[in-house]
């Protein structure tokens, strides 16, 4: 089935809930990735309202804050998420016993660290789930790279990447949470990004 990506972006690109319904209506497997960062409950609520059984994939690096782990448990329970968690092949304790604390972003070892705790688990998730459609909560406000993206795109492997809330602001996200009485999490930290406006490489690798 051929898709007119330009038309879909034009007609649905600013309507997140319509874009979610469209994505979940496509033939083939759909997954939604999450990292349980701020506002993640928005897309997770949107997809479970349409299809409660949509597979949700979390690459848990092992370096999340305590608040993030509690938030993940709360959202998973409240929305009854069909959640699968992918971990690095080494635990955080194992890695730190051998190599110490995670390297800073200007450390030459940081690329290998990112590969181990985020990129390899995601590649494994893609192999095992074999989706045709990938839903993500990317927003244009997040980074300069994301501001250049379209809500719907097809990557070089033919995977249809859908970012329903790409054009939503933090205010839009907050108002959705308030409307649906959903929890939020602001105590979030990603050691592969460190800085809020920096890409970890996962979305650049699969753009």
Which helices and strands, and how do they pair?
Layout: H1 5-12, H2 16-25, E1 30-34, H3 40-50, E2 55-59, H4 66-79, E3 82-86, H5 92-99, H6 110-129, E4 133-135, H7 144-147, E5 152-154, E6 160-162, H8 170-179, H9 202-205
Parallel strand pairs: 1-2, 1-4, 2-3, 4-6
Antiparallel strand pairs: 5-6
Structure description:
This protein has a six-stranded mixed β-sheet. The chain has helices spanning 5-12, 16-25, 40-50, 66-79, 92-99, 110-129, 144-147, 170-179, 202-205, and strands spanning 30-34, 55-59, 82-86, 133-135, 152-154, 160-162. The two termini are 21 Å apart. It is an alpha/beta fold and 207 residues long. It is 43% helix and 12% strand. α4 links the parallel β2 (55-59) and β3. The chain is globular, with a radius of gyration of 17 Å.
Comma- or semicolon-separated keywords:
alpha/beta; globular; 6-stranded mixed β-sheet
Largest sheet: 6 strands, mixed
Q: Mind telling me the C-alpha Rg?
A: 17 Å
Structural class: alpha/beta
Order of helices and strands: HHEHEHEHHEHEEHH
Spans of at least 5 consecutive residues with low confidence: none
Q: What is the tally of helical segments?
A: 9
Number of strands: 6
Helix content: 40-55%
- The residue-averaged pLDDT reads 92
Enumerate the strands of the largest sheet in spatial order, edge to edge or round the barrel.
3-2-1-4-6-5
- Molecular shape: globular
Our estimate of the beta-strand percent is 5-15%
Query: Distance N terminus to C terminus?
Result: 21 Å
Task: Write a compact overview of the structure shown.
It is built from nine helices and six strands, in the order H-H-E-H-E-H-E-H-H-E-H-E-E-H-H. The protein has 207 residues and is of the alpha/beta class.
